[in-house]
Each structure stands twice: as C-alpha cells, then as structure tokens.
Amino acid sequence: MDLLVYGIGQLAIPTGTAARRGPAQGEISLLRNAYVLVRDGRIVEVGRGRGPRSAGPTLDAESRLVTPGLVDPHTHAVFAGNRVQEFLARARGEKYTGGGILTTVRATRAASEEELVQLARPRLLRMLAQGVTAVEVKSGYGLTPEDELKMLRAIQRLAQELPVTLVPTFMGAHAFPPEVPRAQYVQVLIGEMLPRVAEEGLARFCDVFCDRGFYTVEEARRILTTARGLGLGLKIHADELAPVGGAELAGELSAASAEHLLHASEEGIKALARAGTVAVLLPGTAFLLDEPYPPARELLEAGVPVALGTDFNPGSCPLASLPFVMSLAVLKLRLSPEEVLTAVTLNAAAALGLAHELGSVEVGKRADLVVWDAGTFAEIPYWMGQNLAWAVIRDGRIVAGPACPSP
Ligand code: NIG
Ligand code: FE
Q: Ligand 1 center to residue 140 CA distance, Å?
C-alpha cells in the first residue's frame, strides 16, 4: 500500500534495528512537523514539512502525535472459556498458583480450530483498535499433540486473515496434562510435538513455564535445546512465582527473551545483561494478582533491554490493553515515558526477532504506525484506560481507529 501521512505534530520513535538498553532505552528521536511516505507497505521517506506531492492516498494527521505501531510481545490470546470464578475468588483473597490453567485446557480441548478462530478474532481486533499492530500469541492450552497443533493452526489462520502481524509461539510446556505421567509428557514434547511444529512451520518460538510447580530448569533446558536444534527461537516464562533460576537459564541459552521475572535473582539479571536477552515485563499480571511488580529499574540499570507486554490470558491476566500496561509501567515500574515507548515498540519487536522490520518509523521498515489523539507520547500512559488511537496503520494501510474509512 502507498500512503503519505503529513501534518504530523510530533513523530516520536526509538531509532535502530536492535533492542535499546541502558540509558539508550530512554532516548527517543522527536521530529516536529513531519511527514512519512510509504510505498508498497514500506517506509521510503521521513522528513519535515508537507512532504512530496503525492498522487496516492494521503492522511492529514492534523498536528497529532505519531509513534510506531505498538508490539505486544507476550499473549495467550487463543483460548476457549473464561475463568470469571477464579477472578472473583482472587478478589476474595485466594492466591494464584497457576492451577486454573487446566480449566482453560479443558475448554480449549473441547473447542474446534474454527471456534478458537472465532473467539480470538474480536480480541485481536480490540488490541488493534488500541494501536497494537503486532502480537505474539502462545499455544499451551492444549497439552496434547493434536490440541497444541490446533491452537497453532488457529493462530496461523488469524494471521492470514487479520491486518495484524501475529508471531506464533509453541508453549506445549505451559503445564502438565493430568492424564500423562510427567516424564512421559516431556518426552512427547521433545520427541513428537516439537518436531511436528517445526516441520509444519507453525511456530517461530518455543516457550517453557520454568517456575515453582511447573517445569524445572533441567526440563526447560532439555526442551529448549531441542527447540533450538529445530530452528525455533527461545523464550522462557521465568521466575514468575519463585526464583527458580529461569533468568539464569535464559542467559545461558541466549534466549530471545525472558518473561515475567517478578522474582528474578541478581545473578539472573546479570546473566540476561551478558546475553543481551530482552526482559519482557508484564505489570498487568502483578496488578491483577496483587503481587509485587517486576524489578524494572534494576534490569534497566544492569543493562538489560526491557520490553512490556500484556500477558493477556483468561487466568492471571484478563487485561488486553497495552496502553493500560504503559500506564502501569510509568506509575508502578517507575519507567520514564521514553523508556516505556521503547519498551512497547523497538524492544518488543526485538523480543520477537523483528527489530529489523518493525518497532520504529524509519526508511526501509514496514509502515506500521499509529496517529494518536494526543500531542505528546506521555499522554498515552497519562490518559489511563482511554483509547487515543486515531488512525492505526499497518503495512501502509489504515486498518483501525476513527480515521479509518469504513469498509
Ligand atoms: O503467563 N504463567 C503462566 N501462564 C500464564 C497464565 C496462564 C493462565 O493462568 O491461564 C501467565 O501468567
Ligand atoms: Fe504468560
């Protein structure tokens, strides 16, 4: 798609094609009175003023703010059923243990691929309407070869159909299926599921829930090294419930990302910094579980690139709004608005191996950008719980927001 976006009051971007860390995470390039020219879905010019005369479609931003399309690097957006009862029980003071995952596994096993697509479509469209143009989605509510592949095929179909970039992650190691002995399931993961997922090209990453009551560091290492041998990138749900050494393992394996990290140890943080692994922080989960927030400042100061995601799932985090997560990051993680913007664009793209394509508005990148009903980017976290996305542009096409032409 071709498009000229002009009249941009402020273009705010973290520049580059790799994750930004340390002080560089807080450095944002600001261009006032700017335009962006798109040809065939790619950015071909960024400059000041009205831009070149263009015969193609144009969009007047009327002095609004423009940022890169937001990237949500951690969701479990494909599932069936809900866990309202668990939400209410927590409100009465019950603690989250992860045990409810099996409730969603039962509902998801009972759903067809088509039903999973129908259920996930409006969720992803609501995320898009809030400026999120790329979303990682994990499997992990099937826990049998057929049900895990069904989830990944649903993600694949949604990716073909929706104007959102979806990055599929195989997370068969999300819990243990009750009907199979533990060691046998790990063998099925390694010997059957991973090879099939890789062969059918159904996932870009493999993720393991490495935590108290879930996969041990040794099990996670076996699963992830197998995944790496099959060409998948690596992610770890690390130290969400207890400091079990998940962050250390992510560093050891040079994983693309380590996620949650509420209880990451000092050693673990050092290991992430050494490896350049992106820390994907999910403050919505801490908020909803009433748990302490992840050590964002320590991670930043240790030189770990920090990204932010929603963790959208039916159990620990029924929150799907990345802008709301940005508010939590400013208020609770004490990140600056600049650090937050980098965390939900370039660094989130880096956690998905897509920083060369997405995460900033620069020549050569894909034209994913958002025009916001705001003058400065600090207003996105400031106007809490409101949707300021005015025009959401994906690959050079306006796909959501009040400025989107109705179909
Ligand atoms: O990221 N931590 C593990 N998995 C999800 C929760 C999934 C669920 O409760 O259904 C999470 O928080
Ligand atoms: Fe998660």
A: 9
